[in-house]
Amino acid sequence: MQSALRAIAVFVLALLGAQVLAADSKATEQKYTAILIWGTDDEKPTDKELKDLDATLMEKFRKLPVKWKNFYEVTRQNLVVKTGEPQHIKLSDKCELKIHQTEKEGMAVELIGEKKSVYKGTRSMPGKDMLIIAGDDKNATAWFVVLKPE
After folding, report:
1. pLDDT in tens, 56-90
2. How many whole angstroms from its chain centre is CA 8?
3. Less Cβ around it within 10 Å: N or C end of the chain?
4. What is the pLDDT, as a whole number, of residue 54?
5. Is residue 125 part of a domain?
6. How many domains is the chain built from?
């Protein structure tokens, strides 16, 4: 009887261990959407391929303490960030994003604008929070890069 109980206990522990390992391997991979946004007080120019922000993102931007009233999506890219594997994506001719998730330091993010590093920082990225990086642009406009978990 004890032998059968031991076998069952070993089986249950092995099953639980397999579930923990499976959950652990998924935890090292996170999907994100990187979005380049332009902020302005002007109306949307007809000569550029800009999109209106989706309702959720527009609501978030309306709550930000910024002076611009109009926000347009320039481009977006989906990416998968894996622990220990740096990612480098190009959002436009002038904007690039480097991301490196580490086990100890969190997520290192570098934003490159016109071939120069304009932001470098390490963030803890909880599953639902988005990271918004912003900067001034010419003609009293601004750019924003949103890193949104999926």
Report:
1. 999 999 999 998 999 999 999 999 999 999 999 99
2. 43
3. N
4. 92
5. yes
6. 1
